[in-house]
Q: What sequence folds into this?
């Protein structure tokens, strides 16, 4: 972001505003890289903002980001703007605008935005629910190697696709994509693999592998894995 901010520093934004925005961008990127829930990332951003050495308005941070996005059109910056817009940091919360921003970033090929867009379509956030479009964007994200996109796509196959029909589910594809996400260290995917091995869904039933994946997920504080392990041992 350094190459795009010099003009803003000289014009109307102080170095503190630029520095704070850069730190918030890093917090957001780090949260996405570790597949943290949005509220966890938001809390970390708010805590950092409140602890900053100087009083700076949220609006100044958001306005600077908006100008940078207009100038560089970089997905990482667009994603942060969409995130802040959704949760009302420095601007009024506007889920429809957040959807549009994520859509733009997804069209640019960003896998994080593609996964977010699938989530927005699936949960009717800023748009009408469209499970087919959710599947399409989850798949694009998954095929680029983004673990959350892979896990979301795996769940799609596990539950039977757009109509959520377990009778029409595809256990083998679910197992394949959960394995991909698990290999990256995504705890929720590890917990799901534990379940698939336990039940023999999409793979041979293997209690030892089920225990192994449950325990891996539990090490990352995954509650579903803890419950699954308790049921196995019951």
A:
């Amino acid at each position: 972001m350094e190459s795009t901010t010099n003009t803003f520093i000289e014009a109307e934004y102080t170095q503190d505003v630029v520095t704070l925005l850069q730190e918030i961008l890093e917090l957001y990127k780090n949260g996405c890289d570790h597949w943290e829930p949005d509220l966890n990332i938001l809390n970390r951003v708010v805590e950092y903002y409140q602890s900053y050495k100087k009083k700076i308005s949220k609006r100044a941070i958001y306005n600077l980001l908006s100008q940078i996005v207009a100038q560089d059109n970089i997905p990482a910056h667009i994603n942060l703007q969409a995130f802040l817009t959704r949760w009302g940091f420095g601007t009024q919360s506007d889920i429809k605008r957040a959807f549009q921003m994520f859509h733009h970033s997804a069209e640019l090929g960003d896998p994080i935005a593609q996964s977010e867009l699938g989530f927005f379509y699936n949960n009717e956030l800023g748009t009408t629910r469209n499970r087919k479009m959710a599947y399409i964007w989850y798949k694009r994200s998954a095929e680029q190697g983004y673990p959350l996109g892979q896990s979301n796509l795996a769940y799609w196959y596990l539950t039977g696709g757009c109509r959520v029909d377990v009778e029409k589910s595809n256990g083998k594809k679910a197992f394949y994509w959960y394995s991909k996400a698990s290999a990256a260290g995504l705890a929720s995917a590890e917990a799901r693999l534990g379940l698939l091995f336990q039940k023999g869904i999409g793979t041979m039933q293997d209690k030892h592998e089920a225990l192994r994946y449950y325990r891996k997920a539990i090490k990352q504080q995954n509650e579903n894995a803890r419950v699954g392990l308790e049921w196995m041992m019951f």
